[in-house]
Structure prediction request, 223 residues.
Amino acid sequence: MDSNISLGTLFAALQPHPNLFSMPLNVLTCFICCASLLKDDILQLQSYKVPINVAPTFLPSTITSFLTDCFDLSSEDVDSLWNMVKEAVWMQLSMESEKAMCTGLFQQYGTHRGITLLTLYPPFKACQNPSCPMDYRSQLLEKEESCHVVIFTYGDGAQPVWSIHLKCRHCHTNYHNNFSVNGLTRTYYGGVPQYIQVGEHQFAEEKLILHWIDLMLNAYGPF
Ligand SMILES: [Zn+2]
Prediction:
């Protein structure tokens, strides 16, 4: 099968297999992702004569039975699906490479359109104010304002992102990422957010703050 398998070719190949043909697309991509994470294991169990730069024709039986359980498929279906998508599995980028590629695309084509890889939205899509009329609490909040903010992250340094504020048009509660504002009252949401607002336009990733705490404990521990 062509290594650059097209959707049309895949569609035709899936048709004779009813269980595979009815597989949701997100399950298929999950199959490819799981198999890709197992590339080293798949290679390790091949004959030494098998070339390492192309996808092996056959899966080791342990991998087949693992994928059989994961996706509730017969071993025949797993082997058939492997045969269809094995080149796509072999060409699948690592998560780090995929993330780096997406980051590059967002920087090149998204920034000037106001589209950033990470955008901070409030955690709610509808009003949470118990005083707001019930009918309105199921309606989508409307966009009130976009702010350019910086997130200090653990793994990716300082990231420029957009923070979106949403507003209930009925009770005028304004929803931010960490809290809501109604009149003069600011109410923080329950739990610890992934990105904690530490200034008007600055956020810090929770993981980074935990790292700071570890560093301070280590630094002051001996005293
Ligand atoms: Zn409301």
Q: What stands out?
A: The beta strands are 119-120, 142-152, 158-167, 174-175, 179-182, 185-188, 195-199, 202-205.
